[in-house]
UniProtKB/TrEMBL annotation:
Listed name of the protein: Fucose permease
UniProt main location, coarse: membrane
Source organism, top-level taxon: Bacteria
Organism whose genome encodes this protein: Flavobacterium subsaxonicum WB 4.1-42 = DSM 21790
Keywords in alphabetical order: Cell membrane, Membrane, Transmembrane, Transmembrane helix
Cellular component annotations (GO), alphabetically ordered: plasma membrane
Length: 474
C-alpha cells in the first residue's frame, strides 16, 4: 500500500462521494428485481419457482464471476492489483450498463429467456463492483475508520433499495391497475438506468482516484485462503445471509397480496417493500455511529437516536403510506437500538443478536396472520442491516496476504441469492399444502446458521479487534 507517513494525509472526500453515488445506483437497480418478479410472473404466467429464476440468474452471475476471479487470482495473480481499482470499477459499471441495455430487446421480443440473460449480464457487472468497490472504500482513509466508511456507503446503497420499490414500481407498474401489463414497460426505465450508470462511469473516470497496490503476492499453492476456518464458515454464512435477505424481499409483495395476510395490491405492497429495505438503511447509519469509538456512550446514544428519527422521517416522506400505517416501525427501531448496545460493537456478538431476532420474526410471520404477520416480515430488514459487513469482516479477519483472495470467495457466496429464493419458490408452489407463508421456513434455517457462525466467531476469534461492519485493509 502506498506510504503516506511522510506526507500530508490526502483528502479522499471527493473520491468517497463519487463512489457513494455508485453504491446508491447499485442498490437501486438490485432492488428492482423485487419489482420485476411479480411483474414478470403475471406477464408470462409463471409459477413461483419460474419467477425466482430472476434472482437465480442475477445472483448466479455473482457466483460464476467470482469463481472466475478466484481462479485467475490464484494462478495468475490478483487482476485488480494489475489493472487498478479505478479501472476495475469502471469495467464493472460498463458491464452493468450493458445488462440494462439488454432489457430493451428482451422487452421488444417479449421473451422471458432474454430478460433472464439481461439479468445475468447485469449481475456480472455488479460482481466486479462487489470485488472492487467494497475493498476500495476500505482503502480511502485510515484502517481504523474503514468500517465506518463502508457502513456509510452501504447505507446509501440501502437508500437506493428503499426508493427503488416506489420510483421503480411507478416506472414499471405505472397505472397497471387500469391498463394491461406489457413487456414494453421495462424498456425505457432500464435504458435510463444504463444512461445514469454510464454518466457515473464518466464521472469516476474524470475524478482523480488514488491508486493502491497489495504489499505481498499470494502463493498459488496449497489451500490458499481456504486454510482459514473462519473464512470457510464465513462463505456459507454470507451464502445464507444473502439468500435469506433476497428470498424475504422477493416474496414480500406476493405475501402481502394474500387475503389472510393483508390482501394488498402491488401498488400498495411496493410501499411496504420500501420499509423492508429502508430498515437496512436505518441499521447501517446506526452502525456507522455505533462503531465510532471516539464518541462517549451517552453522546453515541443521542446521535443514534437523532439519526434514527431523521432517517425514519425520510422514509416516511418517500412511501405513500399514512403515519398510522408506518408507526409500527418505530418499535423495530427501538429494538434495533437496544440490540446494538447489547452487541457492544463486537461483530460476532451483534451478528448473533440480530440473527436471533430475525429467526423470531420469521416464525411470527409463519404462524400468525393479518397485521402481525405483515409487521413481522417487514421488521426483518432492519436486523439484516449489518449482517453482510459483519460476516465479511469476520470471514477475512487474520487472512493477511490472502485477504483479497478470501474477499473474492466471500463475494462468490452471494450465490445464496440465486439458490435460496428458488428453494422457497418451489415450496410456495405447493399451495395449499404449504404455500407462500410456510415457505418462509427456508430463510429461518439461513438465519439459524448465521446465529451459529456468530457464536463460533465470538469464541474462536476473541483476539480480533475489527469493529462492526468493516473490512480489513489490503
Amino acid at each position: 500500500m502506498n506510504d503516506f507517513s511522510n506526507t500530508k494525509r490526502p483528502n479522499y472526500t471527493v473520491p468517497l462521494i463519487t463512489i457513494t453515488l455508485l453504491f446508491f445506483m447499485w442498490g437501486f437497480i438490485t432492488c428492482m428485481n423485487d419489482i420485476l418478479i411479480p411483474y414478470l410472473k403475471k406477464l408470462f404466467e409463471l409459477t413461483f419457482f419460474e419467477s425466482m429464476l430472476v434472482q437465480f440468474c442475477f445472483f448466479g452471475a455473482y457466483f460464476l464471476g467470482s469463481l472466475a476471479y478466484f481462479a485467475v487470482s490464484y494462478y495468475k495473480g490478483d487482476p485488480v492489483n494489475k489493472v487498478g481499482y479505478k479501472n476495475g470499477i469502471i469495467a464493472g459499471i460498463i458491464v452493468s450498463a450493458l445488462g440494462c441495455v439488454l432489457f430493451y430487446p428482451a422487452a421488444t421480443f417479449g421473451a422471458y429467456g432474454l430478460f433472464l440473460g439481461a439479468l445475468f449480464v447485469l449481475g456480472l457487472g455488479f460482481t466486479i463492483l462487489q470485488i472492487t468497490a467494497n475493498a476500495y472504500v476500505s482503502l480511502l482513509g485510515t484502517e481504523d475508520s474503514a468500517s465506518s466508511r463502508l457502513n456509510m456507503t452501504q447505507a446509501f446503497n440501502a437508500f437506493g433499495t428503499t426508493i427503488a420499490p416506489i420510483l421503480g414500481g411507478f416506472l414499471i407498474f405505472g397505472s397497471s391497475a387500469n391498463h394491461e401489463i406489457t413487456a414494453e414497460a421495462t424498456r425505457i426505465p432500464y435504458l435510463v438506468f444504463a444512461g445514469i450508470l454510464l454518466l457515473v462511469a464518466v464521472l469516476i473516470y474524470n475524478v482523480k482516484l488514488p491508486s493502491f497496490q497489495a504489499e505481498e503476492e499470494v502463493e498459488s499453492r496449497g489451500l490458499g485462503a481456504l486454510q482459514f476456518p473462519q473464512l470457510r464458515l464465513g462463505v456459507l454464512g454470507l451464502f445464507c445471509y444473502v439468500g435469506g435477505e433476497v428470498a424475504v424481499g422477493s416474496f414480500i409483495i406476493s405475501f402481502l397480496e394474500k387475503d389472510y395476510i393483508m390482501g394488498l395490491s402491488e401498488a400498495v405492497s411496493k410501499n411496504y417493500l420500501a420499509l423492508y429495505w429502508g430498515g437496512a438503511m436505518i441499521g447501517r447509519f446506526l452502525g456507522a455511529i455505533s462503531l465510532n469509538h471516539s464518541i462517549g456512550t451517552a453522546k453515541k446514544a443521542a446521535y443514534m437516536a437523532v439519526t434514527a428519527a431523521l432517517v425514519f422521517l425520510l422514509i416516511y416522506s418517500i412511501v405513500d403510506l399514512t403515519f398510522a400505517q408506518v408507526s409500527f416501525f418505530i418499535v423495530f427501531i427501538a429494538i434495533n437500538f437496544v440490540a446494538f448496545f447489547i452487541g457492544k460493537s463486537a461483530p460476532a456478538r451483534t451478528l448473533s443478536v440480530f440473527a436471533s431476532i430475525n429467526v423470531l420474526l420469521l416464525l411470527s410471520a409463519i404462524f400468525n396472520q393479518g397485521e402481525l404477520a405483515m409487521y413481522s416480515i417487514l421488521g426483518i430488514g432492519i436486523f439484516n442491516s449489518i449482517m453482510f459487513s459483519n460476516i465479511y469482516t469476520l470471514g477475512i479477519s487474520g487472512l493477511g496476504k490472502y485477504t483479497s483472495q478470501g474477499s473474492s470467495l466471500l463475494v462468490m457466496a452471494i450465490l445464496g441469492g440465486a439458490i435460496v429464493p428458488i428453494i422457497q419458490g418451489a415450496i410456495a408452489d405447493t399451495d395449499p399444502v404449504y404455500g407462500v407463508q410456510h415457505s418462509f421456513i427456508v430463510p429461518v434455517f439461513c438465519y439459524l446458521y448465521i446465529l451459529f457462525f456468530g457464536i463460533y466467531c465470538s469464541r474462536k476469534l476473541k483476539n480480533v479487534e475489527h469493529p462492526v461492519g468493516g473490512v480489513s485493509g489490503h
